Amino acid sequence: MYRSAAAKLLLALILICSLPITSAAQDTVLMDGESIFLTTGEAWTFDQGYVLTIKSVNQRTNEVWLELSLDGMILREGIFRERDTLVYSRDTEILNITLDTVYSSPSGELVTFTPVYQYLDPQLPAPEVRDGQEQDESNGSQANSSGDDILPMPGYGMFQTLATIALVGLTGLAVHRKR
Which residue ranges traverse the bilayer (predicted)? Predict the structure, then answer.
């Protein structure tokens, strides 16, 4: 009876440990509800190379012509108003950008986007995070001077580690009982 239960548990642990770990990478948040401020003609470069550009602003209606591109290819473009959201996804959501406020003056326009979310695009290489990396306001790359925002690396998580330890322990126990 114990041997049958141990064999079933062992089989379950082996199956759990063999699950693909890449599914966790799809939920990796690269930008979590942050704010972006751009003037007409400026662009914000996200991690993984996505670029949001303000093509023009209609001061009379507070409408903004936005363009989202990757490697020079336009992915989405359109006219947006305050509180409109630009969402880009492939198999999963990659970008979720809310146009918050349009400020106009005789000298130009300032557009604020908040909240802004970017999730890891599994079809593109993961962004590199280096120790001491500083925010570059001109191109919008992620900051990481304190090390607090380090992205999780693919590999074994806590669950997989504990399951492996349990598997090894049960295997040792089963071998010990046979003797």
Answer: 156-175
The span from the CA of 75 to the CA of 57, in Å, is 20
The ranges assigned to domains in the chain are 1-25+158-169, 29-119
The span from the CA of 116 to the CA of 178, in Å, is 59
Compute φ and ψ for 173, nearest 5 degrees.
Answer: -65, -45
CATH number attached to the domain at 29-119: 2.60.98.40
The amino acid occupying position 27 is D
pLDDT 10s digits, 8-57? 766 665 656 555 544 444 478 999 999 999 999 999 999 999 999 999 99
- Interhelix angle 2-17/158-178, rounded to 10 degrees, is 150
